[in-house]
């Protein structure tokens, strides 16, 4: 029975449905994620994707499990993870990522997202190039001692519902549309002051005067004391947020000016088709404003008046949506294309659209295009998380030269310190970086011995799964493009590298 299944699902996923809704959940259930390496970090990430109900996962891992339970690691992890959620389909490939890249690079094209964990730098770069050209998002994750690292590699990621924390309402009090103006003039508030020049109060002083105007409107009792009027108090409190000018944010404006928004072809995605429809509306019927969002905040009022006001906004939003739809339809017809999308959802979020474009790994690793200035300015404070990035790059260099990470054998820790120091110096030299990496960090990274402590893996597993869900649902804004977690100081930072 379909409806029974639906209620079971609603009960089971109740909390997360409040975050990303049915459509977000559907996107999650249609996704297929590939995990390279079932290490502690890898299995933590998958656990956090399987519990909320990702559609399918495939683990690629050629390592053998050591000890009594000899067998393939990918298979063992798949079987245990599968037990967490029977709705999820689990697969495994007993192959090292490098072998797969040699024999069947197309294998990776089928996934919604590829997550690479604890990969050597060379594998990471090869895989990064394959996924970049195929347009598949790639999330690199790594736990190295007490350091967590993530790098997102995605050419273009569009977000409709960015869920900003402190979004202002779309009330248009400064530019009331005709229906709103008529609705408000049907309330005979004592004849308004004529001296005002129709400008919104802008600064603190003007807003104070405006608040006083509202206070003066409160009825007085027979002793001349103001009555308890909750709706007036509420209005005074909201002067700051409700009187925001109706304007388009620079982020959305940049999206409208994108070449993808300009040149519509049969290859244009639904996001850009709709963005173009909204842009056409702004430039024509909207007179420079976005379509009306159509929602108003809860407020103290009698039900009838509130519902009438709500309907004024809602009907205007539907009118605007119909106009935008016409624009979209004309573009679709011109290029002979059909899209099934939730236009209402898109228009409701038009003010919060986001596009995330990351740099490729090739750009980050090339000495011509790496972010020299970013690194140099961060390293002005020698304990910036940036130093951990430089150290990770240095241990990768060590691995290339010695086919092992520094400090993995206790008896070599001392001699590895000087070898790692050479790697740090050559990295800085080749990139022309005149920054200082403290010896403490070199010692610390040798002491780590490339260990993967579960506490750090578990924290990173939560963070990475969260980013994965953002990418899959196209909701909330993923970081761009490097995240570093320092478990020694309990700090984290993001950088664009």
Automatic annotation (TrEMBL):
The keyword Transmembrane helix does not apply. GO terms for cellular component: cytoplasm. Gene3D superfamilies: NAD(P)-binding Rossmann-like Domain. Residues 13-493 form the THIF-type NAD/FAD binding fold domain. GO terms for molecular function: NEDD8 activating enzyme activity. InterPro entries: APP-BP1, ThiF/MoeB/HesA, ThiF_NAD_FAD-bd, Ubiquitin-activating_enz. This is NEDD8-activating enzyme E1 regulatory subunit. GO terms for biological process: protein neddylation. It comes from Astyanax mexicanus (Blind cave fish). Belongs to the ubiquitin-activating E1 family. ULA1 subfamily. Keywords: Ubl conjugation pathway. Regulatory subunit of the dimeric UBA3-NAE1 E1 enzyme. E1 activates NEDD8 by first adenylating its C-terminal glycine residue with ATP, thereafter linking this residue to the side chain of the catalytic cysteine, yielding a NEDD8-UBA3 thioester and free AMP. E1 finally transfers NEDD8 to the catalytic cysteine of UBE2M. Pathway: Protein modification; protein neddylation. The keyword Lipid biosynthesis does not apply.
């Amino acid at each position: 029975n379909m409806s029974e299944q639906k209620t079971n699902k609603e009960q089971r996923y109740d909390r997360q449905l409040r975050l990303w809704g049915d459509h977000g959940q559907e996107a999650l259930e249609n996704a297929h994620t590939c995990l390279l390496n079932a290490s502690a970090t890898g299995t933590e990430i998958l656990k956090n994707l399987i519990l909320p109900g990702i559609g399918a996962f495939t683990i690629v891992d050629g390592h053998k499990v050591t000890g009594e339970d000899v067998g393939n690691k990918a298979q063992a992890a798949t079987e245990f993870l599968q037990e967490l959620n029977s709705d999820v389909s689990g697969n495994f490939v007993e192959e090292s990522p490098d072998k797969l890249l040699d024999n069947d690079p197309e294998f990776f094209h089928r996934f919604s997202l590829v997550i690479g964990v604890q990969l050597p730098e060379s594998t990471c770069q090869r895989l990064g190039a394959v996924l970049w050209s195929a347009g598949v998002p790639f999330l690199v994750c790594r736990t190295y001692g007490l350091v967590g690292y993530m790098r997102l590699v995605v050419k273009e990621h569009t977000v409709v519902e960015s869920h900003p924390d402190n979004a202002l309402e779309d009330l248009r009090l400064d530019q009331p549309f005709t229906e709103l103006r008529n609705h408000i003039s049907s309330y005979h508030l004592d004849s308004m002051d004529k001296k005002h020049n129709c400008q919104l109060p802008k600064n603190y002083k003007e807003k104070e005067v405006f608040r006083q105007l509202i206070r003066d409107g409160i009825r007085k009792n027979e002793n001349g004391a103001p009555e308890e009027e909750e709706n007036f108090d509420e209005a005074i409190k909201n002067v700051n947020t409700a009187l925001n000018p109706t304007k388009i944010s620079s982020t959305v404006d940049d999206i409208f000016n994108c070449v993808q928004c300009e040149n519509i072809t049969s290859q244009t995605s639904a996001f850009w088709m709709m963005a173009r429809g909204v842009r056409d509306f702004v430039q024509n019927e909207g007179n420079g404003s976005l379509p009306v969002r159509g929602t108003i905040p809860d407020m103290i009022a009698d039900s009838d008046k509130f519902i009438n006001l709500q309907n004024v906004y809602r009907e205007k939003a539907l009118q605007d949506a119909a106009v935008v739809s016409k624009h979209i339809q004309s573009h679709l017809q011109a290029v002979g294309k059909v899209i099934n999308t939730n236009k209402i959802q898109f228009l409701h979020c038009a003010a919060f659209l986001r596009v995330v474009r990351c740099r490729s790994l090739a750009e980050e690793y090339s000495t011509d295009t790496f972010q020299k200035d970013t690194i140099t300015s961060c390293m002005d404070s020698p304990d910036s998380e940036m130093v951990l990035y430089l150290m990770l790059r240095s241990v990768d260099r060590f691995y290339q030269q010695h086919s092992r990470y520094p400090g993995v054998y206790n008896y070599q820790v001392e001699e590895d310190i000087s070898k790692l120091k050479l790697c740090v110096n050559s990295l800085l030299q080749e990139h022309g970086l005149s920054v200082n990496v403290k010896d403490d960090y070199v010692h610390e990274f040798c002491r780590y011995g490339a260990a993967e402590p579960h506490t750090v893996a578990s924290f990173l597993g939560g963070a990475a799964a969260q980013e994965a869900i953002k990418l899959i649902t196209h909701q909330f804004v993923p970081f761009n493009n490097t995240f570093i977690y320092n478990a020694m100081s309990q700090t984290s930072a993001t950088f664009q590298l």
